[in-house]
Amino acid sequence: MPRGHPDWNVNVDWYAFFDIDSAELAARLGSVATYNRSGRVVHIDKCTHDPVTFELPRFGTGAAVVLDSSKSFRHQASLKLIAGSDSIGRAGISKNLPVISLSKHGLEVTWSPTSGGFIVALSLDYFDGTNNYSYTIRCNLDDQKLYYFNSAGSYVEFANIFDIAAKPAYWHVSKLVIDLVRFEYVAYHLDEMKYDLSEVDGRVSTDGSTPHIQARVYHQGEPSGNPYIHVNDFIFTMDEP
Length: 241
Prior knowledge:
Layout: H1 22-28, E1 40-45, E2 58-59, E3 64-68, E4 78-82, E5 90-97, E6 104-113, E7 119-127, E8 131-140, E9 145-149, E10 155-160, E11 172-179, E12 184-190, E13 193-196, E14 203-206, E15 212-220, E16 228-238
Antiparallel strand pairs: 1-16, 2-5, 3-4, 4-16, 5-15, 6-11, 6-16, 7-8, 7-15, 8-9, 8-14, 9-10, 11-12, 12-13
């Protein structure tokens, strides 16, 4: 990126951020997309600030989203999503984003769990002014399985994830990719694994909201206690391959 110089060991004044693909720029600036750097970045948030820039869906006793400087992927802080202690207990961060093109879109999040059984979910909802097209992947660290939200409104198992350990020392990278031309899932990435979900339809329901895309990650706990996850690097992309 520095004009006429290698992109390591250089003075920051040498950098010229023009004529460069935004996905590459995000990667050079510290994108967590270690295994997948595809797509053009529309929105990127390192989740190192007070969560006021997000909508904060919270359900159950004790549910909260707070800034936590005690743990981070590679920044000075992260967002701590604390699930409520009821049967519907969950906590998440959500962002409404503009529709720039009807292409393949992705949501990538870095997260770290605590011990105990719970669900980490990535969701993308497209509102076209008439309908809501909903796509969600659940990573269930209790039964070590992955599920997608289908056209009938049910969660369907599609993979085992025995190698994913629910330990505080581990960080994971998840990415959900959908196709807004064919209105179907494309793939789900979990660390170095890619799961093909092409030709799988999401859920369609009537909704007259102004056209936008809602991207969110949420953590759902068990009916007792307040388990939590830490989240860094919330990245929304378009023009995925």
